[in-house]
Specification:
The chain is α/β, with parallel strands linked by helices. The strands form 2 sheets. A 12-stranded mixed beta sheet has the order 1-4-6-8-10-12-14-16-18-20-21-22. A hairpin with a 5-residue loop joins strand 20 and strand 21. The relative contact order is 0.07.
């Protein structure tokens, strides 16, 4: 009798688990159906032709499911470069196993739905090159502990970067360039020891950079803040960002002397400092002059010209600042 009871108990638990995953998988399909319903333009017809009830959602274009046959939950959605026009529906928050979302290079418009904060397993968000508007919600950042890459570049997002950016302890890539963000960059961003890339260029950020900005940024390889309204001096402690390969701070309101410590960034490949009110020279670790800035005219009176004095082989490449620096996005 006891064996029979135990068997019935195990069978009941198994049926409950199967029912749970069945319901959850159904929620995934409803979420994908909602996304399809919000698409008003599908030039190639991929979604209308492929996203049908005749096939498993795991075979739909752009959809990837987990490897467990019994669960078959959606873990990745890639609709990039499809020329799609539409809005992101709130039902996207039902894709609870999603780890990667790529909607980049389309024409999605409207705000980022707050329901996305329900996607606690999300690691990568790529929504650059769309027409998204609105602000970056603190809840969006506070509820995604696994987020590693966030790319919202080339949209029309505004407002500031919430302090909650500091709660993303695994964040590696933050790409927000070419939007309408403004205000101060929160100190919490500079406390992210895991971050490798920060791209904030061509917004309206203002204020000064903290003196200790590089104390925690031990893995930072790329720091782009050109085309903003930053003021004050460039922190001399910038040499603590020893992994920097690309540094772009042109077209701001920085003033004072260029920190000679920049010359200690021996891994640096590209440096952009033009269109500021800077002066001085940069020395190599052996105190040889690498290059200096003069007030000679180039294109107009506000442009600063680099005079190359001595560039050790494979140490540094100096380029005049242009919009092409964003090719790393």
């Amino acid at each position: 009798m006891e064996r029979m009871s135990f068997f019935i108990f195990k069978l009941t638990i198994a049926l409950m688990i199967l029912n749970f995953y069945s319901v959850s998988a159904s929620e995934d399909q409803h979420a994908l159906d909602a996304i399809r319903a919000q698409i008003t333009v599908d030039p190639s017809g991929l979604l209308s032709k492929n996203w049908t009830s005749n096939a498993s959602i795991c075979t739909w274009t752009g959809v990837s499911c987990g490897s467990r046959v019994k669960t078959q939950r959606v873990i990745a959605l890639d609709l990039s470069d499809m020329g799609l026009v539409g809005r992101i529906p709130p039902q996207i928050g039902s894709l609870s196993f999603l780890t990667s979302l790529d909607l980049s290079n389309n024409s999605f418009h409207g705000p980022i739905p707050p329901e996305m904060m329900q996607l606690r397993h999300l690691e990568r968000v790529y929504m650059g090159h769309n027409n998204l508007t609105g602000t970056l919600s603190p809840l969006f950042l506070d509820k995604m502990p696994s987020l590693k890459s966030l790319n919202l570049s080339h949209n029309s997002l505004n407002g500031n970067i919430p302090e909650e950016i500091g709660n993303l302890s695994e964040l590696q890539d933050l790409v927000l360039n070419n939007n309408q963000f403004s205000g101060l960059v929160p100190q919490t961003l500079f406390n992210q020891s895991s971050i490798r890339r920060i791209q904030l260029s061509f917004n309206s950020f203002s204020g000064t950079l903290p003196d200790n900005m590089c104390d925690q940024l031990v893995k930072l390889r790329l720091f782009f803040i050109s085309g903003n309204k930053f003021t004050g001096p460039i922190p001399s402690s910038i040499n603590k960002c020893r992994q920097l390969r690309y540094l772009s701070m042109s077209t701001n309101n920085f003033n004072g002397s260029i920190p000679t410590e920049i010359g200690n960034l021996t891994l640096l490949k590209e440096l952009f400092l033009g269109e500021n009110d800077l002066q001085g020279m940069i020395l190599s670790p052996t105190h040889r002059i690498v290059f200096k800035l003069t007030n000679n005219l180039f294109w107009d009176n506000t442009y600063i010209l680099y005079e190359l004095i001595h560039i050790p082989t494979n140490m540094l490449t100096i380029n005049k600042p242009t919009h092409q620096v964003e090719s790393h996005s």
